[in-house]
Amino acid sequence: MATSLQQQADTILDFWFGAGFDNAGASEVAARQSALWWSKNPEIDADCRTRFEPLLKDAAANRLADWADAPRTTLALLLLLDQFPRNIYRDTAQAFAFDELARQHCHLALAMGLDQQLPAIARVFVYLPLEHSEDIDDQQYSLELFRTLAKQAGQADREIFAHFADYAKKHHQIIERFGRFPHRNQILGRASTAEESAFLQQPGSSF
Fold this sequence. Notes:
The protein is built from ten helices and no strands. The protein is mainly alpha-helical.
């Protein structure tokens, strides 16, 4: 792999996790980066767009295929395809346009055991394409993976991984009930059923 591509992958990881995350505790990384990961911030979205949209387009066009061969570059590839579109194209159908490709790369990484060569906090983002999937088998796999992470966590990180496992459970329950995420219906131009419309009025129905 060309050095420049390795540097690009490292830039993605440093942006998302912070420099030196490999040697930091999971709870420390999560506390430091959670505003970047989970908040709806126009400035963060714009920064993602400016810095990473060209690489996202390269990934979608299969020009980063070599990244799928190693743990860290696979992690960067999954961030590009699964996380960054949700920032770059927030509140549009394009935010979910790369989910299938992310899901495929996720399954490949798991089949190759690449996730096992990454820090636990990084593995969260390897597994998230399955949590974002509207396929019940992916959801079951996601639930198992996140529960395993929680069981393996040390005392200092037990709470954060229990939180991730709880979110995986909530996603699984929605797909088990509806076969899709109702909160995506409007953006994707899908008609909601009466049951889904009622569900969307409840707290916690959207992610």
